Amino acid sequence: MHRFARILLLLVVVPAVYFFVYWLPFDFVPLEQREWVASLVALLCAVLAGRFLWIRTVGGAAARGLLAAMSSGALALGGIGFCAGFFGPLLLTPDANQGPLLGLFITGPLGFLLGGIGGFFYWLRHRDKPLS
C-alpha cells in the first residue's frame, strides 16, 4: 500500500478509536475527578490500533494471510464508518442530540463488517497462486 494511503488511514482510524474508547466504555464508569484515566486508556488504544494498522499495511495484507487481510480491512473501514457517522451528524445538525449514535451503532459496526468482507475478497484476489 502506498505511504500516502497509509497516512490517510491513520488520520481516520486513530481518532476514531480514541473517541470510541473514550466515550463508549467510560461513559458508564463514574470517574469523577479522574478523567485522565479515560484519556490515557483511549490514547493507548488509539496508538496501538494505529501501530497495528501501520504494520499490517506494509507490503499488502494478502501476503500475510486471510486473517491479516480481513482485520486490516475491518479496522480501516470501521474507522471510516465510525468517523463519518459520528462526526457527520455533529457537523450537519449540531442541535440533534442523538446524531453521534449513528456512528456508534450503525455506520461503525457496518463499516467493520464490510471491511472484513472486503478484506476477504482482497485476499482472494491477491493471494499467491500455487504452481501446478
Could you characterize what this model shows?
Helices cover 73% and strands 0% of the residues. It has 132 residues and is mostly helical. The chain has one domain (3-126). α1 packs antiparallel against α2 (35-56) and α1 (3-23) packs across α3 (66-92). The relative contact order is 0.14.
Please outline what is shown here:
This protein is an all-alpha fold and 132 residues long. It has helices spanning 3-23, 35-56, 66-92, 101-126. It has one domain (3-126).
Number of helices: 4
Provide the structure class: mainly alpha
Residue-averaged pLDDT: 84
Specify Rg, calculated over alpha carbons.
Answer: 17 Å
Portion in beta strands: under 5%
Helix share of residues? over 70%
Task: Kindly give the count of domains.
Answer: 1
Q: Could you list the spans in which at least 5 consecutive residues all have pLDDT below 50?
A: none
Task: Note the run of SSEs as H and E.
Answer: HHHH
User: What's the end-to-end separation, in Å?
Assistant: 29 Å
- Biggest pleated sheet: none
Shape: globular
Number of strands: 0
Transmembrane segments: 7-24, 36-54, 66-89, 101-124
Keywords: Membrane, Transmembrane, Transmembrane helix
Element layout with pairings:
Elements: H1 3-23, H2 35-56, H3 66-92, H4 101-126
Helix pairs in contact: 1-2, 1-3, 2-3, 3-4
What descriptive keywords fit this protein?
single chain, mainly alpha, 73% helix
